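Memo to structure team: turn this sequence into structure tokens by end of day. - J.P.
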Amino acid sequence: MKKLPLIPVLFCFLFCAFADEPMLPPQNYTKFFSNGRFMLVCDATKKETICYEIVDPTADVEPEEKWRITRWGLYSYLSENGEFCVLDDWGGLIPLDYDAEYVLYVVFKNGTEYAKIKLFDVISDEKNLRRTVSHYYWGNIESFENDGIVLNTVEGKKWYDFKTRKVTEYVE
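Reply from structure team:
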């Protein structure tokens, strides 16, 4: 009888035991964008996100508030010009009991709700969703540009255009 090495078996067990764990409780965080030109302060307690513009990083001056959203997200994305923001609560996962109108992301423009990106705007066939223990995985944001978002999905790369508010196939 062939014996399995103990370390790889133990690693596999531990990986499986902790995969797809419940999300951590919301926490406050600060994130910098555009080489420190913009700062998002995401306050889970107040359920708000504030974008600050750092006009002169070398000066001892307080950053200027650019806009405020009365919402918090586990992950946050900001365009290089500080105009567009997306807050993400699930990190590429959706609940098992999702419906046809399920919203993946709300896009904000200068702090005001601008558009909603729904699951079936991005995914053409729900059979392509990948089942985890407690959710489905659809994909994630690969990069965030001034004019749109590159989405890395279970169906390949897609492009969300801020101007048209449409999702199309990604073309490099």
